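Forwarding these from the shared drive since the link keeps breaking.
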Amino acid sequence: MTLAGQTTNVQVPNICFGTAPLGSMPNTYGYAVSEEQAYQTVEAILTSDAPFLDTSRNYGDGRSEERIGAAIKRMGGLPEGAVISTKLDRDMETRRFDADRARRSLEESLSVLGIAKIDVLHLHDPEYARDLDEVSGALDALFKMKEEGFAGAVGLAMGRIDLMSDLLNNWDFDTLISHNRFTLVNREADQVFDLAHRKGTAIFNAAPYAGGVLAKGANEFPRYVYQEADEAALAPVRQIETICAEYNVPIGAVALQFSMRDPRIASTICGVSKPERVAQTLDWANHEIPQAAWQALAAVPYSSEDPEASRIYDPG
């Protein structure tokens, strides 16, 4: 168990399960997820050796949280030791993200999840707010929620690294989530991770599979960061696959452990959409990978640019 931040007693496993796919977001992930499949996946997470899940108010227009709440109810309540992370979100129609909207987002989450307190609560995607100036009110509200006992730890979850760095310099977050920006093929978040580590902010590194291609492979899943990928984008993935084949290790295990091996990272968030993926993730986390494989992987080229710069954002 790893302490999440320096001003909180919340503890988390080094693996977290991302549940955006459970909201059934085919425009993002390329496939749909039924309610029953989502319920079974949540139960598999919460009864696993890493009962830690991350969701958001806006994943699947609220369906992710709703399905998690229904699964918890079906299980008879949240199992002891389980950890829930969710996020304060802007109004998805008006993009309003002030203190009042933050408060409403919290109320919605508590209601649909059926719990009285969020273990880890993040301000989510401020770069998409209608006015960055009003986000300061949402941040004030976030920290007040912790003071009021509605959150055990509070943090920042977003994409744009430049804005994340600015906010991290000016606010003492317990945690942060960056996604797709610290993987085998991208290191854009490297410097902001250094900053967070110096400040004692616990780092949750999300999407180590770059949207799925580093788990399924370039032939089976020729997409990169939620978009169709050309051969130029897939070239380093194919190079990684060749190394994995040489050393007889799953590409998913290598992608996951690349994140887990970094001493700055408190927990790695892996998206799952099927119950069997939970066990597979934990197996990959413990799969033995030869040092020679890591040495070969160190020579694979990677980008330090924004991997989502050309992404057409669609939360569905």
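-- next protein --
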Amino acid sequence: MFALRLRHFERSEAFFSLGSALAAGIFIGAGLIHMLPDAIDDFNSVAPHLGYPLASLLCAVGLVMILFIEGVLVPVDEGRVASSETADHLPTYPYVLTLILSIHSILAGIALGAEPSFIGSLAILVAIIGHKGSAGFALAVSLHRAGVSRTVIFKRIVFFSLMTPLGIGVGAVFVSLLTSTASLGFEAVFDSLAAGSFIYISTVDIIKEEFFEPSQRGLKFVLLCLGLGLMAMLALWL
């Protein structure tokens, strides 16, 4: 909600534009540095003799899937970011992003709820805190830049916030119903698809839009690199 508190400042639009650039770097890093490598490792654990880059294929499927939704199923054309447009012309990617981040939060919560040891639970909790704050900020910026109303943004943020606690409860149930191999395979599939979705959203929806505007391109580039660097730094510990 910190992002929305700044919307009434005089230069709020400039702030949100810069925030979008930062968010793009976060999503690129989350997809390429965290999700895709995690998916590759999980697939190697589930099927070590597969001999096929399944994670990369599913990453490409995730990218093409979002392209199909935005470019074929629900094309948005000219009215991409204008807040005055009707709901029918609002871009779909903030809602897709909400869904992707929420499912990822559920999976993180499941991992935490299913973890039997205190040290392991603490490590997962630190990882969730490290990712969810930046993801929540990026989500709020994306929703605002898409012209979504404050009330709807608040509902989306609350929904996103509840997903990890929900996942913790589900994880406690999963640990008695699913084998570790099955849950690992499910997480690998989702992480692969989500990585492709993040790459598409960050490049086609955010970077293309923000760098089309001539103002503050240098600063936007620095912030994009900062977001990417933040995800790279988190990979040292998480």
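The chain has eight helices and no strands. The longest helix spans residues 12-46.

- D.
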